[in-house]
């Protein structure tokens, strides 16, 4: 399946993840939060491998959308535009995740497989 064929499906999945993030933030207790986080993991696992790898440092719905914009731009810059501010925000979110170990890790969203 080509990137252009996958894009509508990926956007729908990101919308679902966005809704789950809101539910996780408002979970009434840890048990419900754990269930919602597990759902988040299962749903995010439907992304193509290259997409999961590229968004590992910024795995929230906003970061996923940001990555799609950047990917579309670099895939066809003559047809897709992106502002310097959007590119800078993408770069900042990517480097901030690498530099700031005190922030909440995205490792939850991308657990390492047992070997």
Outline the structure in words:
The structure is a single chain. This protein has 115 residues and is mainly α. The chain is 65% helix and 0% strand. It is built from 5 helices and no strands. The protein has helices spanning 3-25, 30-44, 49-54, 61-75, 84-99. The longest helix has 23 residues, at 3-25. The model has no long low-confidence stretch (mean pLDDT 81).
- Structural class call reads mainly alpha
Order of helices and strands: HHHHH
Q: How is the main sheet built? A: none
Principal-axis shape: globular
How confident is the prediction overall: mean pLDDT?
81
- Uncertain residue segments: none
Strand content: under 5%
Key terms:
115 residues; 5 helices; 65% helix
Q: Can you give me a brief rundown of this structure?
A:
The chain is mostly helical and 115 residues long. It has 5 helices and no strands.
Secondary-structure blueprint:
Blueprint: H1 3-25, H2 30-44, H3 49-54, H4 61-75, H5 84-99
Helix pairs in contact: 1-2, 1-4, 4-5
